[in-house]
Amino acid sequence: MRASTRRSPLLALALLCTALLSSSCSDQEVTATEPALVFTAIPNENTTELTLKFQPVAAYLERVLGVPVEYKPASDYAVSVEFFKHGDVQLAWFGGLTGVRARDAVEGARAIAQGVVDPQYHSYFIAHQSSGLEPSEGFPKALVGKTFTFGSKGSTSGRLMPEYYIRQNTGKSPAAFLAGDQMNFSGSHDATAKAVEAGTFQAGALDYKTYDRMVAEGKLDPQKCRVIWTTPDYPDYNWTAHPILEERFGAGFTDRLQQALIDMQEPDLLRAVNRPEGLMSASNEDFESLRALAVEIDLVRPK
């Protein structure tokens, strides 16, 4: 007797399920291999908080640009530059100094956006209430011999500019002017603020926006940790784009990305970069004066 060539209902159902599962797996593989725009930000405050803040930015850029977008946290300022240098990230929210270093390392990299406030940025010098240091209009030379902490070694507002102004106003290196024989680094602006508030250091320097935000949020007592001097203005933070974006997503993509960043208006998005005033266009030339200062104190090599 010849075997029946008809398939049973159960066999047909099994074959259908197998086909659907195979199709689903195939779709996931395509999605997984689709090129993504990966971005990072210098960890100028708690990295866990930054990750939460930048997730909405990733979702916004993905929606506007029509490509997968991912946020990749960096453990420190130097790591963010290394990520960019090796193409692990193609966009980064850098400080002025880290932006200069990243663009020096990658030919064709572009500063494309900055905060409206960033062309006129400044640092605060802060002091513990017990230090005897008082607010002043000029550089506080009474800092001589005081314990002092900078932020990250790669920070513009927490290291480069404070060091520059110490050297400019005293004729000495920070190690020679301040207490101890070496520079102290807290690692981030919020860590500097809390270290001075606790009296661990008598004074320190940090990003003015971080200080103002922490006071406004009740995370810092301005009586215990007070501002004693505000530096002159200088250019600082910026979004810098990697040239590989044009190869990965097509000619003109970087300009589209620039416009998407400038068009960010929602408070939750601007909160990630602490720029409620909004963003504006930027170019590499906007940071040449900063680069010159970094070269002067040997933090960047001459071109």
User: SSE order in H/E notation?
Assistant: HEHEHEHEEEHHHEHEEHHHEH
CATH topology of the largest domain, by name, is D-Maltodextrin-Binding Protein, domain 2
Mean pLDDT: 90
Oligomer: single chain
Fourth-level CATH superfamily of the largest domain:
Periplasmic binding protein-like II
Number of strands: 10
Structural class: alpha/beta
Could you characterize what this model shows?
- This protein has 303 residues and is α/β, with parallel strands linked by helices.
- It has 2 domains: 34-119 and 235-296, D-Maltodextrin-Binding Protein, domain 2; 122-230, D-Maltodextrin-Binding Protein, domain 2 (3-Layer(aba) Sandwich).
- 43% of the residues lie in helices and 15% in strands.
- The protein is built from 12 helices and 10 strands.
- The protein has helices spanning 9-33, 47-65, 77-85, 96-105, 156-170, 174-177, 189-197, 208-216, 244-249, 253-262, 267-272, 288-296, and strands spanning 37-41, 69-71, 91-94, 110-115, 123-128, 148-149, 203-207, 225-230, 238-241, 279-281.
- The strands form 2 sheets. A 6-stranded mixed β-sheet has the order 2-1-3-9-4-10, sandwiched between helices.
- Helix 3 (77-85) packs parallel to helix 4 (96-105).
- The protein is globular.
- Residues 1-32 have low confidence and may be disordered.
Short description:
The chain is an alpha/beta fold.
Spell out the key features of this protein:
303 residues, alpha/beta, D-Maltodextrin-Binding Protein, domain 2, 4-stranded mixed beta sheet, 10 strands, 43% helix, globular, disordered N terminus
